[in-house]
Structure formats: C-alpha cells, structure tokens
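Table S2 (continued). Query chain:
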Amino acid sequence: MDEGALYRLLTWLSPSFPVGAFSYAHGLEWAVEAGLVRDERALVTWLGDLLENGTLGQDAILCARAHDAVEAEDAVGFAGLRALAAALPATAELLLETTAQGAAFARTCLAAWPDPRGRLALFFGEPEAAPPLVYPLAVGAVAAAHDIPLRPALAAFLQAVVANLVSAAVRLVPLGQTAGQRALAALEPAVGAAARRAEHAPIAALGGASLMVDWCSLSHETQYTRLFRS
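Corresponding output:
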C-alpha cells in the first residue's frame, strides 16, 4: 500500500472524519448502567466478544464482501448486500447507528475524495426504494474504489469502531485515558483475528451470539439519562 492510500485510509477512519461516530455507543451506555461493564477488564472482554461473536465480526464480513463487489464491478451483488445488511441490526438504534454513519461516510468521501474511475455512483445511487447504506459496506466499497487492499482496510475499520467504543467507555464507566489505551492495546490481537477471519469469509458465515448487546441496545431506548444515541 503506497503512502497516498495509507493517508486516505487514516483520514477516513480517524475520529475527526465527519460520520458522527462520537454520538453512538452500541448499547454500551446501558451495559455500564446495568453494571455489566464496570472496569477496564470488563470492557476488553465485552469488545472482544463483539469482535469474535457479535456485530463487529459481522460488520467485518460485510465490509470484505463489499470490497469484493466493487472490485468485480458487481452492482447486483452489492445491491443484495445492501438489502441483507439493512435487515441485520437487531434494534432501531443499532440500525440508526450503522445507516447514519454509512450515509455520512459515502457522502463525505464522494464530495472530498473523487472516485478514481467513477464506479461508486453505480453502487451508492439512492433510488427511493433502495435499502439504506450501512457503514461497513460504505467503507469496503470506498476502499476498493481507491485500490486500498482489503486486509488493511478491514483492520483499520475495526480499529476505528473499537476505538470509538473505548472512547465512549472512558466517559461512561468512567475510565482514565491511560486505561483506555491499555484496553486498545489488549484488543489488538482480537482486531487482527477478526480481520483475518473476515477476509475470505462467505456471506453464509454471517451470524452472531451477542444477545446481551441486543438487550442493552433495546434497554437504552428507554434509558432515563443518555449521552449517546445508541
């Protein structure tokens, strides 16, 4: 990967990129309220489970297969991924989290980083009947359009999502900044393993066992005091 590709990947998945990631906590706010995540160790376990058995591992597969579809110029396949991905979130807030960020990511990339070969218009077209564009599909498609290899794109995408959730936990638990960085360091192997699993995983491998996250997300909808939108 050349320096230009690395620069784009770091920019798109940095905390300053305007997708509004800071507004979302993926059910973590209720998990803290319920005493399920009380400290650094519990946070690492929670996020590790999300990577191995939950929504983050699932999103990595979607990101990978979107990358493949754009590389193959398979608009029909990408449309099928959009429909499937929009049906996967278990709660209204998780759906909002992924679709709002997906739309913002695609819109900003198209406005600031011109598509080198004009392929993305075919995939991101928004007819009224089209399913919404989820965040991992948007990231995978843009990375492929700019010839960014799949493996680093997956690792960067997962690290960005994990880092955002760690940042949320620093405020919610609360954790110190150093504890947050220790959590990110501890999660490095899990992020790498999830990226490797997703690289060649078929769509049939989608699925998870993170029912507690779904419950936390549902409970968050009626949480009395909230800092985050999910």
